[in-house]
Each structure stands twice: as C-alpha cells, then as structure tokens.
Amino acid sequence: AVIDWTFFFSAWELKGSYPQILDHANFGPQARELFTDANELLDEIVANGSLQARATYGFWRANSEGDDIVLASGVTLPMLRQQAQRGEGDPNRSLADYVAPVETGLPDHVGAFAVTAGLGSDELVKRYEAEHDDYRAIMVKALADRLAEACAEWLHAKVRRDWYAPDEQLTNEDLIAERYRGIRPAFGYPACPDHVLKRRLFDLVGAREIGMELTEHCAMLPAASVSGIYLAHPAARYFNVGRIGKDQVEDYARRLGESVTEAERWLRPNLAYDPD
Question: What are the structural domains of the chain?
Fold first, then answer.
C-alpha cells in the first residue's frame, strides 16, 4: 500500500506536495522532522502490531433505474443528480449514469467496500496521552488516517486487476493521481452527499464483522476508516451534486423510503431552499 504523504503534511497544516515539501524554503526542516518521526513511529507500530487493518468488499449484478442503482441482491442505492444549470455539453450528472440502465438489458456490476486501519488506534492514543505525549497521540491518528486511505487504494487496485483491468500497470504516482479506470465514491462526499446510505452499505458488505461501526450520525468507527462503492464505467468521474431543489428532495425521500423532513435533515448543506 502507498501512503499519500502530501495529505499527511496537510493534516499538520504544511501545504505542499511530497516529496518537494521536504526541501521547501520555509518549512522544509519542519517537514523533514515530521517525516522522520512519522516513519519511526510507523516502524514501531508495524513491529508491535499496534494497529490492525481489515477490509471487506463484494460485487453484485446491478442496473440503474432512473437515478437509483439497483443491485440484484435486492439493495437499492438512491442517487442524487446535479440540478444547477450547466454549460452546453456539460450534463447534469448522477452516479447512476455510470451503471447500465435496466431497459438496455445489458448486464452490469457494482462493487462496495469498507476498509479500516484504525483497529487498536484508540488504545495507542490513550497510552500516549497517559504518558503526556500529545505529539505522538496526534501522530497516531494522522498515520492511521493515511494508512486507511492507502489500504483503500491498495484494495481498489486489486479489485480492478481481478475484475475489469487485468493488464493495469501503474506507478505509485499514477495511483495517487487516480490515473485508472473507475472511481470509488464515498457516501457523505460531494457526488453522493447522503451519509445515511452508509447504513445500507455496511449491511451489504458486512462491515461490522471486521470491527467497523456507525454512530447515530453515520460517522464511521474506527475514525480511520473508508467505505464506498466501485463504479467501473470508463467515463466515471467525481463531481459535486451541489444545490438541489425541493422537487428532487421529495423524489429522493420517496425512493429512499424516508420522510421529506428526514431527507432534508441529512441533505441540509445541499438544499437550494429553506426547509423551515
């Protein structure tokens, strides 16, 4: 697995790309010290088995029905569509666009996954806090986050080679720059902003069986965890759903099987109107 150190330094409010940041005129020395400390702690974590990483994933036959992604297992994942007016030739996207419509009769598949690298992190953080070593406590959290993302990247590469891109040959830089076919959007992020769908995803992949949980607000535990879906369409790309109108929220709530009020509560940052 490849750690994206650029985001590690960003967590410490050091802006710049790795490895160039190590030679930055202003904060290069601080970045190099952080990098050394992080790798020393990482070596200790590996030697002691202080953190555990686990993952689960699967693929299901699937088709889109309107803006829903419908899996043959019976699970439906309602998606949202961009509603703001866009320029000519720039469509209003939905993630459902990247799955073969049921009316075409074409078979398609959608994957789902859950990954954590945070098993044991709470205990390690508490140990360092008890020793009044806040620096290492924070470092553990930052490293666990990066390890979770690295595991998600590793798993996605394995999935592509096993399922639809057996001849893929990419460098670490290619992986970090996402120069590969397909995407792995996460629920709660711009292309699919409703965190509630994590509940269906967790049930689908058996995330609780590998030690992951959801809070009542649908935050993942351990915190150093990643989950989402795999879409293999060659044209699949990330985008921001942005603001949506009440007409779509009402339709989405119906498809989700929730009240409009409940849907509005979870989608509040995306509402183009005042629900009150």
Answer: 52-118+147-242 (3.10.196.10)
Q: Which residues of the chain have pLDDT under 50?
A: none
Residues 6+ apart with CB under 8 A from 186: 192, 226, 227, 228
pLDDT at 1: 57
DSSP for the chain reads ----HHHHHHHTT--S-TTGGGG-TTTHHHHHHHHHHHHHHHHHHHHHT-SEEEEEEEEEEEEEETTEEEETTS-EEE--B--S---TT----BGGGGS-BGGGT---EEEEEEEEEEETHHHHHHHHHHTT-HHHHHHHHHHHHHHHHHHHHHHHHHHHHHHT-TT----HHHHHTT-SS-B---TTBTTB--TTHHHHHHHHHTGGGGT-EE-TT--EESSSEEEEEEB--TT--------B-HHHHHHHHHHHTS-HHHHHHHTGGGBSS---
Determine if the peptide bond prior to 185 is cis (ω within 30°): no
What would the pLDDT profile of 117-156 be if each residue is shown by its tens digit? 999 999 999 999 999 999 999 999 999 999 999 999 999 9
- Token pair 């879409």 is at which residue? 231
Query: What percent of the chain is modeled with pLDDT above 90?
Result: 91
Q: What is the per-residue pLDDT across 157-188, written as a single tens digit (0 to 9) for each? A: 999 999 888 999 988 888 888 899 999 999 99
